[in-house]
Amino acid sequence: MKLIGLTGGIGSGKSSVSAALARRGAVVVDADAIVHQLQQPGTEVFVEMVDRFGAGIVAPDGTLDRPAVAAIVFSDPEALSDLGAIVHPRVHAEIDRRVTEASGTDAVVVLDIPLLDRNGWPGLIGTIVVDLDPEVAVERLVAHRGFTEVDARARIANQADRAERLALADFVVNNEGTLEDLESEVDRAWDWIGSLE
């Protein structure tokens, strides 16, 4: 197994890179997808979040109202810390389970983890950072994901800065161009992964 870390700030296109690596044969372990699974109604994580943050984070259909959660935690460091205490240990355990499952195979396993720059992960043989100018990220979040500019900037401010992320990189995927440019960047990344021992 080759264990590769993948990270990038919000709006960087990390999910697009992750999907492109999966199309090339990588087994992708997506921390955000795991979070969504763990926050389904009735799960321990969902119940604990409602206990901590109140019924206002439950949408009319009974699912988690993610914008309501974001409005609470991204303006309150203590609330953000409490959310992390509820969610992160369970996410970590599920990622660990999936990596263990793939160990002993010849798979390329890509850990798609937004907070990799803060927490790291044992056993990585290389880390890919998806990079672009934060101003471009703001534009993309507003244009394609329905963020307000204020919210986009607040989310970016809550993450590691560009220099911190780039300091971790063994390989940088530049995502300031077109989708075709990004495919070429991922081809380069896939060749780099193939060269690793």
Principal-axes geometry comes out as globular
Beta fraction: 5-15%
Overall tally of domains: 2
In angstroms, what is the radius of gyration?
17 Å
Question: What does this protein structure show overall?
Answer:
- The protein is an alpha/beta fold and 197 residues long.
- Helices cover 56% and strands 13% of the residues.
- The chain has helices at 14-23, 31-38, 44-53, 66-73, 77-102, 116-119, 134-145, 149-157, 162-168, 179-195, and strands at 2-8, 27-30, 108-112, 126-131, 171-174.
- The protein has a five-stranded parallel β-sheet with strand order 2-3-1-4-5, sandwiched between helices.
- α2 crosses α5 (77-102) and α3 packs antiparallel against α5.
Strand-helix topology:
Layout: E1 2-8, H1 14-23, E2 27-30, H2 31-38, H3 44-53, H4 66-73, H5 77-102, E3 108-112, H6 116-119, E4 126-131, H7 134-145, H8 149-157, H9 162-168, E5 171-174, H10 179-195
Parallel strand pairs: 1-3, 1-4, 2-3, 4-5
How do you describe this structure in short?
This protein has 197 residues and is an alpha/beta fold. Helix content is 56%, strand content 13%.
Give the key terms.
single chain; 197 residues; alpha/beta; Rossmann fold; 2 domains; five-stranded parallel β-sheet; 10 helices; 5 strands
